[in-house]
Amino acid sequence: MSDSEEHHFESKADAGASKTYPQQAGTIRKNGHIVIKNRPCKVVEVSTSKTGKHGHAKCHFVAIDIFNGKKLEDIVPSSHNCDVPHVSRTDYQLIDISENGFVSLLTENGNTKDDLLPTGRALCLLQIKDGFPKGKDLIGNVMSVRGEEQICALKDIGPK
C-alpha cells in the first residue's frame, strides 16, 4: 500500500455503546426506567417481598411503556440485574407539520429532522395542530430510547 492512497471510512455505528446497562433490581425505584419484555418502560410502582424459603427477596415492578403507554409487570429477585435503558431528551424547534401528521424539526446544527410522528401522545398532536397554524413558536422535547424516538412534550416560546 502506498502513502498516496487514502482510506475513507463511513460509519453510522455508535461505537459499540450499549442501549441498556445492568442495574440491581433492588436499587430501581419509582419513576426510574427498566426494560420489561424488551420494551423501555417508566416504573410507576415497586414492591419488595421478604425472603421466602428459597432465600430471595423479590421485586415486583409495575411500569408503563414509554412509547405506547401499555402497562407491563415483572417480578425479579432483588439481587439480580435488570436492564435499564439509556434515555436521552433533546429539544428541537418545530418548523412545519405535514398533512399526514409528520413534523419537521430544526436540529442544533441547522439540519431538519422529518421522521417523527407524534402519535403516542394525543395531547402533543393537538397542541401542534392548534398552536402551529396560529403562529406560535413551539419547541418539541424528543425522547430517544434504544433507537426509538418520540415527541414527548411541547413548549410554547411565544409568537414567531
Automatic annotation (TrEMBL):
Keywords: Hypusine, Initiation factor, Protein biosynthesis. Residues 1-23 are annotated as: Disordered. GO terms for molecular function: ribosome binding; RNA binding; translation elongation factor activity; translation initiation factor activity. GO terms for biological process: positive regulation of translational elongation; positive regulation of translational termination. The keyword Amino-acid biosynthesis does not apply. Residues 1-13 have a biased composition (Basic and acidic residues). PROSITE patterns: IF5A_HYPUSINE (PS00302). InterPro entries: IF5A-like (IPR001884), IF5A-like_N (IPR048670), IF5A_C (IPR020189), NA-bd_OB-fold (IPR012340), Rib_uL2_dom2 (IPR014722), Trans_elong_IF5A_hypusine_site (IPR019769), Translation_prot_SH3-like_sf (IPR008991). Residues 86-155 form the Translation initiation factor 5A C-terminal domain. eIF-5A seems to be the only eukaryotic protein to have a hypusine residue which is a post-translational modification of a lysine by the addition of a butylamino group. Translation factor that promotes translation elongation and termination, particularly upon ribosome stalling at specific amino acid sequence contexts. Binds between the exit (E) and peptidyl (P) site of the ribosome and promotes rescue of stalled ribosome: specifically required for efficient translation of polyproline-containing peptides as well as other motifs that stall the ribosome. Acts as ribosome quality control (RQC) cofactor by joining the RQC complex to facilitate peptidyl transfer during CAT tailing step. Belongs to the eIF-5A family. This is Eukaryotic translation initiation factor 5A.
